[in-house]
Medium-chain specific acyl-CoA dehydrogenase, mitochondrial
Amino acid sequence: MTGTVLTEPLLALRDLAAEWATGLRVAGAVLDRDPEAVAQFADLPAVRCMAQLLVPGEYGSEGINVAGRRFHGMTALERTVLLEEFARGDAGATLAAPGASMSGVLLDVLGDDEQKAWFYGRLVDRPTWTFFALTEPDAGSDANALTTSLTPGPDGDFVLNGRKRYVGNASRAGMGVVFARTAPGPLGVRAVLVDTASPGFHAEPLGMLGLRGARFCALEFDNLRIPANRVLGRHLSPARRGMWAATLTFNRLRPGVAAIAIGIARAAHEYVRAEGGLLTGGAAAEWDQLGYRIESVRNLVHLAAMEVDADGSRGGHLASSAKAEASRLAEDATRAACRFFGPSARWTHPLLDKLVRDARGVEFMEGAANIQKLIVFTGLLAGKVGQGESFPALNALSGTGGLPCG
Ligand SMILES: Cc1cc2nc3c(=O)[nH]c(=O)nc-3n(C[C@H](O)[C@H](O)[C@H](O)COP(=O)(O)OP(=O)(O)OC[C@H]3O[C@@H](n4cnc5c(N)ncnc54)[C@H](O)[C@@H]3O)c2cc1C
């Protein structure tokens, strides 16, 4: 049984993305060896597409015009469609592209008009990398424990001090967002816009095994001055400015990360079909089964995206479930693909080696599987995850026979 929640325009977007993904595989291999080579891939269609995503049309972004619709990547469902296809080409090269990326989702949640004009204006002006800095060396999964400080400066501005870690694209970024603490407790967390040209900003690339193109960095802020108008959420109530906004942002982003995992799983699945000779008997059955699983998890991811698009604050449980399922799928698929080629597969099939490493990286992005499971079970214990009534998008589909989800 097959099915999809994607409408005709989204199916057309998917087909276009599949076409645009051409060239990412080669770029990914080059960036895996040398992440600094990123500029030479600026004209790939997928890279140009990523550079425009998450910039609303009213700020001057052309978006993607297909099947009579214009897409700006403002919904999670659009992003899952694009990211799966691009990651099937190469996840590392996709994440290495300039664009609003994670910061764009946060700006959409927390930015006021002036902040959006500044942020989107720079992105429309020229392809610009951005970064999103939440994780700290001593506070990874437990983001509430972050210690980077935002203190009042002498002239009404603020001063940022602290360290972050594993921050994608930070050493090549023109701007980004940093989460910092103004006071103890969850209400004491704020996000600020940072211009990387400001004195006191330091980014040091880290040696990574997976998704190497995206140049993950350790950051240090040394008395970095933050103008008062770069503190996000000024126009919102204190409860909506800090960790609430981070949670909402992660809910909206997780289906996209899950889609990247599916793209990696598909790349491994297709590689065995292309290079593994004629599959027969148990091997053929195993590979067919993996194909069904990919479809099934994709449907879960699309549903999760629809839920967060309908209401980002209540859709988090399904998004976490989708992210956990998809990252496990990517790891299972890439390792299973290696088994087809024997014990030295990762040596003799460099693409498979890269896919295994990239899949491992996705497991940690936006929260490892244990954290996703904690979110799901916390929702279950709180009665927020039930038998469908918690998920309006699922209800809307029930009875239509349109979606296999198992
Ligand atoms: C490829 C990649 C991209 C990233 N991009 C960014 C980025 O752009 N910006 C950013 O800010 N961060 C980024 N990160 C950081 C990422 O969010 C963290 O790695 C992640 O939150 C886990 O934190 P940690 O690495 O400190 O691991 P830890 O928090 O130390 O966790 C290690 C292990 O312990 C488990 N664990 C931790 N706490 C619990 C618990 N309470 N119960 C059960 N198990 C637990 C985890 O599941 C994990 O398996 C990225 C990481 C990677 C690998």
Observations:
- The domain at 128-237 is CATH 2.40.110.10 (Butyryl-CoA Dehydrogenase, subunit A; domain 2).
